[in-house]
Amino acid sequence: SNIAFEKNQEVKGQHFLKPLLTSINDKTVVKIAYQKFGDTESKNHILHSYLLKEYQGFWYVLGWHSASNSIKTFAVDRIQNVEFDSEIAFIDNSTFNNDTYFKDTIGITFTGSPAERVILHVDKMFAPYLIVKPLHHSQVMVEVKSEHTVFEYLVVINQELENILMSHANHISIIVPKALKASLKEKLTKALTNFS
C-alpha cells in the first residue's frame, strides 16, 4: 500500500468504557481496581464518574474521588476492574463544567486552577509549526521578527502543557509566567544531570 497509517494498538481497558459510561449516565458510583504505573498491585477507589475523555489515543475517566476530596483522573488502560456500588449515594458534579473547563486546558489533568496568560518567545525554526498547528485555540501572534515570533495563550498550567514545552525547549523561551519558567528550568537542569 502507498498509504501508511499510524498503527493504533488496541488500547487496554477499552471494555470498561461501556460500564463507565453507564455509571455516568445512570449516576451510579463505581468501585474501580486501579494499578498505577510502578505499583505491583491494584488499589480500590470509589469514584463518582462525571466524564470520559480521550487524549492522544488513550481514554481517561474523571470524577469525584471522596477519599482525596477532589476531582481525580484515572487512565482507563490502568483499570483492572469496575463494579457498580448502588449502596453509596452519587455526588452530583458541581465542580466543573466539561465544556468551559476543557476550553482552557490542554490534555486531561484537572487542576481546578484558572487559565493564565502564557507568553512564549519562539525561534524562527519552530514558529512556522505553531502557526500551522497551534498549541491551543487561544494562541495569538503578538510579535513577528525575522529571528523569532512571540505567541500568547490563555491556558491552564498543567502537566500536559509543561510536557509539550519541554519537548520543544530548544526552540522556546517562556516570558511569563515566572513560575512556569522556573518549573521547566528545574526539569531541564535535572535532565542535563541525567545526560552528563
Query: CA-to-CA gap between the ends?
Result: 44 Å
Order of helices and strands: HEEEEEHEHEEHEH
Summed up, the helix count is 5
Q: Which sequence of strands runs across the widest sheet? A: 4-3-2-1-5
Q: Radius of gyration over alpha carbons? A: 20 Å
> What's the pLDDT, averaged over the residues?
92
Describe, in plain words, how this protein is organized in 3D.
This protein has about 200 residues and is of the alpha+beta class. The protein has five helices and nine strands. The strands form two sheets. Strands 4-3-2-1-5 form a five-stranded antiparallel beta sheet. Strand 2 and strand 3 form a beta hairpin. The relative contact order is 0.12. The mean pLDDT is about 90.
Considering the chains and any ligands shown, give keywords for the structure.
196 residues; elongated; five-stranded antiparallel β-sheet; four-stranded antiparallel β-sheet; alpha+beta; 9 strands
Topology:
Blueprint (H helix, E strand, L loop, with lengths): L16 H10 L2 E6 L8 E13 L2 E8 L4 E6 L3 E7 L12 H6 L12 E8 L3 H6 L7 E5 L3 E8 L3 H9 L4 E5 L1 H18 L1
Antiparallel strand pairs: 1-2, 1-5, 2-3, 3-4, 6-8, 6-9, 7-8
What's a quick, concise take on this entry?
The protein has 196 residues and is of the alpha+beta class. It has 5 helices and 9 strands; from the N terminus they run H-E-E-E-E-E-H-E-H-E-E-H-E-H.
